[in-house]
């Protein structure tokens, strides 16, 4: 038996051994190689944007300028979907007009859809349906007078729904197989658009079907109404996939790609996604009581542990649209909407990138990422085919359309003026970071670097601004030349990012302004009932997004963001030199 002294020595030796044992090193990030090819999947991708719900309540212009309109103008979506018919509601008309003004400034393409169209027995009253079509054409023409560059498409109803006397529920026309009714309204809308003289600006869309098991109605439309249809479109929500599912993306790209290819092959027309988003929950008791709603319809992963991962699924929808050859995509929705507040909200539609219940308009976790994608992938742009050596790394790419009169197939694409600004969108479904190499076609340059905007469901991410201001770039990279794996050559540039975050999203872009806006002048403050109004001289230029106001007396704290040239600050006393105002441009650059 060992002596007590020897045991002490032995234990000390063990303790020393344990103390100096090296910790295992963190694993090196896995190398992933991808390539952007010169193959054009769609030559005129309109953009990634949002569905904009109509607003029947009375909201002051100050709310629009500092919240709704400001965020819309900063997001700068290339594509939106909204209801153009306001049914005599003056509040709704006013808000829609303000929205159209922003969409005109942001050069957005709008797909108009009527929610809740009027039921007409057209076999008994054909003149009534004809007059209904004329009213549609007249109202669309009025919108185009206000925003002549916004209109693009129109569909007379949402998701094949019409309140029939015997079936007043969602999807009634497809469920009842009443395509004769759908066709009659489609033809009436076409005649109304022609009579209004706007057929060169507004084309009809068919069929707006949702979900994918109703996409077969597109085949019916191809065979029956193609002669008056300009574009084909549909919706889908991934109710069968969780936010963390890696299986959703390949299925989604195949669905979109199959429909886009068929529309082009059969009739030479485009296919777009007019609605998509997160999985749907409807009328759950928990949400009805939480938000004081009579009827609640919203996102399944809001306010759950899955919400940060849901961002990846939303971005995969955009990547699938780009890689599938679609012409546009709209997420449902831009803002949540709770209608007719009294003692209880009549209806709560809770899908938005921003909340909108009472006074809470705070951004949700996906706000920054979808806003930056909307701003970056603003069309018309060309979507390009990509290749990846890892199926868990999804990637899509776009490049600015070449100057008028230039055909890429006949011009040497090594000319940077032909290549134009480009952007790459990546989702990393791996639970660890990756070292990413993106091989680029000849002529792709980055004279001002590549701005990178990163998001991670599991790691640090940019804070959400209480004013809804989008964040600046996470970092700026320079192009390199990488070799091996057939993903880049000695003459081709490559983008190398050694830290693509785990369960993350990265937006890479060269499509930005290098110089910040000019300083704002004429700043002055005036006492107003209940506070102070700060005003300034408008900044000149076409790339202005909005203004930020800072309180110098409060440690330079930001107190306002607005698209107007004034801002009311409640409970604040005016003072000379107290406020500083800066302009922010469409690339997110802040002036001095």
Explain this structure.
- With 592 residues, the protein is α/β, with parallel strands linked by helices.
- It is built from 12 helices and 26 strands.
- The strands form 4 sheets. It has an 8-stranded parallel β-barrel with strand order 1-2-3-4-5-6-7-10, surrounded by 6 helices.
- Strand 2 (79-82), helix 3 (90-105) and strand 3 (109-113) form a beta-alpha-beta unit.
- The radius of gyration is 27 Å and the shape is globular.
Count all strands and give the number: 26
Main β-sheet, spatial strand arrangement:
1-2-3-4-5-6-7-10
> In what range is the share of β-strand residues?
25-35%
Integer average pLDDT: 89
Note the gap between the termini. Answer: 81 Å
Q: Which geometry do the CA atoms define? A: globular
Fill in the keyword field for this structure.
eight-stranded parallel beta barrel, four-stranded mixed beta sheet, 592 residues, 26% helix
Summarize the structure.
The chain is an alpha/beta fold and 592 residues long. 26% of the residues lie in helices and 28% in strands.
Topology overview:
Blueprint: H1 4-20, E1 30-52, H2 61-75, E2 79-82, H3 90-105, E3 109-113, H4 126-146, E4 151-155, H5 172-175, H6 179-195, E5 203-209, H7 217-224, E6 231-236, H8 248-267, E7 270-276, E8 280-282, H9 285-291, E9 296-299, H10 307-323, E10 329-331, E11 337-339, E12 347-350, H11 367-376, E13 378-388, E14 393-400, H12 416-419, E15 422-428, E16 434-439, E17 450-456, E18 475-477, E19 494-500, E20 504-509, E21 524-528, E22 531-535, E23 544-551, E24 557-562, E25 566-570, E26 579-585
Parallel strand pairs: 1-2, 1-10, 1-16, 2-3, 3-4, 4-5, 5-6, 6-7, 7-10, 9-12
Antiparallel strand pairs: 1-13, 8-9, 11-12, 13-14, 14-15, 15-20, 16-19, 17-18, 17-20, 21-22, 22-25, 23-24, 23-26
């Amino acid at each position: 038996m060992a002596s007590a002294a020897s045991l002490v020595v032995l234990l000390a030796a063990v303790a020393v051994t344990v103390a100096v044992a090296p910790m295992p090193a963190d694993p090196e990030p896995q190398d992933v190689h991808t390539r952007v090819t010169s193959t054009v999947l769609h030559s005129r991708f309109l953009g990634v944007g949002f569905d904009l719900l109509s607003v029947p309540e009375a909201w002051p212009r100050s709310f629009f300028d500092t919240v709704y309109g400001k965020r819309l103008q900063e997001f700068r979506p290339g594509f939106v979907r909204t209801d153009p018919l306001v049914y005599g509601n003056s509040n709704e008309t006013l808000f829609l007009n303000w929205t159209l003004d922003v969409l005109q400034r942001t050069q957005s393409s709008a797909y108009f859809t009527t929610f809740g169209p009027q039921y007409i027995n057209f076999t008994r009253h054909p003149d009534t349906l004809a007059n209904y079509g004329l009213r549609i054409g007249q109202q669309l023409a009025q919108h185009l007078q206000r925003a002549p560059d916004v209109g693009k498409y129109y569909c007379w109803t949402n998701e094949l729904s019409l309140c029939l006397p015997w079936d007043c529920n969602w999807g009634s026309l497809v469920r009842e197989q009443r395509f004769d009714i759908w066709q009659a309204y489609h033809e009436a809308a076409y005649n109304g658009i022609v009579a209004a003289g706007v057929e060169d600006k507004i084309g009809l869309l068919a069929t707006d079907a949702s979900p994918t098991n109703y996409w077969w109605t597109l085949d019916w439309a191809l065979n029956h109404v193609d002669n008056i249809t300009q574009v084909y479109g549909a919706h889908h929500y991934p109710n069968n996939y969780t936010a963390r599912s890696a299986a959703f993306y390949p299925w989604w790209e195949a669905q979109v790609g199959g429909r886009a290819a068929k529309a082009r092959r059969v009739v030479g027309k485009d296919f777009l996604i007019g609605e998509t988003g997160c999985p749907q929950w409807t009328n759950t008791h928990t949400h009805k009581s939480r938000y004081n709603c009579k009827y609640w319809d919203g996102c399944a992963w809001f306010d759950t542990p899955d919400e940060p991962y849901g961002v990846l699924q939303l971005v995969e929808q955009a990547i699938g649209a780009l890689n599938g050859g679609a012409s546009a995509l709209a997420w449902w929705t831009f803002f949540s909407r709770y209608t007719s507040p009294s003692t209880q909200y009549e209806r709560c539609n809770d899908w938005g990138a921003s909340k909108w219940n009472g006074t809470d308009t705070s951004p949700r976790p996906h706000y920054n990422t979808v806003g930056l994608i909307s701003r970056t992938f603003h069309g018309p742009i060309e979507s390009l085919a990509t290749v990846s050596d890892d199926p868990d790394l999804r990637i899509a790419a776009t490049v600015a359309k070449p100057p008028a009169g230039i055909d890429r197939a006949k011009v040497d694409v090594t000319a940077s003026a032909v290549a134009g600004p480009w952007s790459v969108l990546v989702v990393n479904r791996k639970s660890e970071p990756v070292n990413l190499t993106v091989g680029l076609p000849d002529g792709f340059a980055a004279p001002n670097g590549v701005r990178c905007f990163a998001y991670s469901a599991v790691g640090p991410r940019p804070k959400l601004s209480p004013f809804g201001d989008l964040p600046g770039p996470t970092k700026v990279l320079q192009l390199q030349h990488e070799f091996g794996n057939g993903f880049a050559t000695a003459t081709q540039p490559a983008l190398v990012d050694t830290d693509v975050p785990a369960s993350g999203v990265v937006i890479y872009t060269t499509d930005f302004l290098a110089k910040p806006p000019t300083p704002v002048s004429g700043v002055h403050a005036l006492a107003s009932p209940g506070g102070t109004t700060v005003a300034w001289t408008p900044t000149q230029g076409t790339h202005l997004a909005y203004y930020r106001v800072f309180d110098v007396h409060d440690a330079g704290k930001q107190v306002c963001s607005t698209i107007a040239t004034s801002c009311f600050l409640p409970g604040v006393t005016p003072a000379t030199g107290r406020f500083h105002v800066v302009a922010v441009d469409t690339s997110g650059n802040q002036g001095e």
